[in-house]
Amino acid sequence: MATIPAGTSYILVEHADGTCDPRTFELIVAAQVLGPVTAVVVGPAGAHEPLVAELAAHGAAAVVGASAPDYSERLITPEVDALEALATAQPGAIFTLKGPRGSEIAGRVALRLGSGVVNNVTGVDEKARPSVSIFADSVSTTVEVSGDSPVFALRAGSVEPLAGAAVSEPAVSTLEIPGASPRDVRVLSYTEPPRSDRPELGVADVVVAGGRGVGEEGFAEYVEPLADALGGAIGSTRDVVELGWVPAATQIGQTGVTISPALYIGLGISGAIHHTCGILGSQTIVAINNDEDAALFEVADLGVVADATEVVPALVAELAARKG
Amino acid sequence: MPAIVALMKNVPDSWSEQKLNENGTLDRDSVDSVMDEVNGFALEQAVQIKEANPEAGYTVIALTAGPKAADAMLRKALAGGADKAVHLNDAALAGSDVIGTARALNAAIDAAIAAATPGEDLALIVAGTSSSDGATMSLPAIIAELRGIPAVTYAVSAQIAGDELQAKRVAPEGIFELAATLPAVLTVGEQAATPRYPGMKALLMAKKAKITALTLADLAVDSAQVGRDAAWASVVDAETFPPRQAGDVIRPTDAAEAARTIADFLAAQKHI
């Protein structure tokens, strides 16, 4: 059985190929407001081992490796089973990362534990009351959540991953979770999302995003070269993800990633509320679009009414020239 | 005939101004409401599964919970291929959190099947991946938990083969081919099959069709488990942010001028 510090909160670690998704560290920071943090790694046996040092360095007081023998054939339910078992044995607030996976896990766990759940949280106070931005980030609400183990799906980019809160000797333990039940789906095949050398969208300092206006080929021809010239990540809109032009992981906004980079540049993006609600935390917003009625101009610090496909090559050259 | 239930939701039009009531619940009366776009895809998926499996003889039931205005959305669903429409409308539902809403909808699924196709079993519940307003992103999966059945979420395509649902899930973590034993929950996004344009005949039929009305009294749900008083999460405080101000908008004469201006701006802001 797992070794858990008194008064702990739990965070669900997002990980792949033996490394943590950096957004996991934001969960630790958000949860630390409530006391010591237990990082829960769910995967095949031993999956937590390569992650312990990284998690402790970011402030996890304890690490639990929860494993199921049939983990690779299942989806979402192993994480729900693990968090349910831990919080049933020792109640505590639970933090997951908002998204198709983390938000579903949060809802399921809350139901099983008889606690409230709040999605799209930007932080919690010391009374475990979460802040939630609603109405396209125009209103911030404070929510009262009942239950011994309130569940929060944290929006990435909401808190700064702190440096210097390292834990030198985290308590490491393991937990075996049961195999599949009738409520499981079966994974027949899995394809990894395309990986790139560019920074992760949710944590990048610079994001260059493309919309329908750049065209299908425009991502390779304009968005990517400008992102690379600035050392940034690629972003996109729901439209172009649905058209299949770019991977789902690039989608910014309501049903995608919320970003707060130092610089966001939108190319050929009209600025539908579903997209702009995900970029309002950006320090500087630049919009390039040949449609001068584009709503994105209303939130941009600099708007350029021009064809992105003409401006971007000139801008990439200009940036290269200034770099020397 | 076994039932496929498509969950529908009327949402505030994203372009209208939204606000909260005094008690922290969503003001659903002051805004224009429209059918949440993603529901059209969920319904289309339900209808296509029915059409692809004529031997199974599925009945597609469009089900919604919400105020009276949702009737118009249900007529749209009937025109778009739903066989039956059921509307759960009860003032006591207001202020429910996601778990209370899931409990009410879950009970309404059974009541809707009993009313629309008595004696038949549930085969599939189809919903959109995520609503554009509340966006708790977990309601369909919570219904699956309540029923103890599997949920395939964020699917871009789906079919039924025998007693199994097969679907492709596309999520940031990767692409999954999944299978689940029926009955099951399925959620689809806007990458799934595009909703059809109803013909004149379908529109006329939808206009005349009967919509079954339900209240909480018709459901096998504990009324202490729904509504604002039962909510395990409720808003206690709200603060409005100042809107972001628009900056300069320039209309450069050529690409080189545009590039210079942008680079100067980025340098001034210390981004390069």
Largest sheet of chain B: 9 strands, mixed
How much of the sequence lies in strands of chain A comes to: 25-35%
Largest interface, with counts of residues having CB < 8 Å to the other chain, equals: A-B, 96 and 82 residues
Going by helix content, strand content and strand pairing, the class of chain A is: alpha/beta
N→C terminal distance of chain B:
65 Å
Strand order of the largest sheet of chain A: 9-8-7-10-6-1-4-5-11
Shape of chain A: elongated
Biggest sheet statistics of chain A: 9 strands, mixed
Number of strands of chain A: 17
Helicity level of chain B, as a percent range?
25-40%
Q: Helical content of chain A, roughly?
A: 10-25%
Order of helices and strands of chain B: EEEHEHEHEHEEEEHEEEH
* % residues in beta strands of chain B: 25-35%
- Strand order within the widest beta sheet of chain B: 9-8-7-10-6-1-4-5-11
Shape of chain B: globular
Uncertain stretches of 5 or more adjacent residues of chain B: none
What does the model show?
- The complex is a heterodimer of chains A (324) and B (272).
- Chain A is α/β, with parallel strands linked by helices.
- Chain A is 24% helix and 26% strand.
- Chain A has helices at 23-32, 52-57, 77-89, 102-113, 218-230, 238-242, 273-276, 308-323, and strands at 9-12, 15-16, 19-20, 37-43, 62-67, 94-97, 117-124, 130-134, 139-145, 151-154, 171-176, 186-191, 206-210, 233-236, 263-267, 284-289, 302-305.
- The model of chain A has no long low-confidence stretch (mean pLDDT 91).
- Chain B is an alpha/beta fold.
- Chain B is built from six helices and 13 strands.
- Chain B has helices spanning 37-52, 70-79, 98-116, 139-147, 200-208, 255-268, and strands at residues 3-8, 10-12, 33-35, 59-65, 84-88, 122-128, 151-161, 164-171, 174-181, 184-188, 211-214, 233-240, 248-250.
- Chain B is globular and about 70 Å long.
- At the A-B interface, helix 4, strand 7, strand 8, strand 9 and strand 12 of A face helix 3, helix 4, strand 7, strand 8 and strand 9 of B.
- Strand 12 (186-191) of chain A pairs antiparallel with strand 9 of chain B, so a sheet runs across the interface.
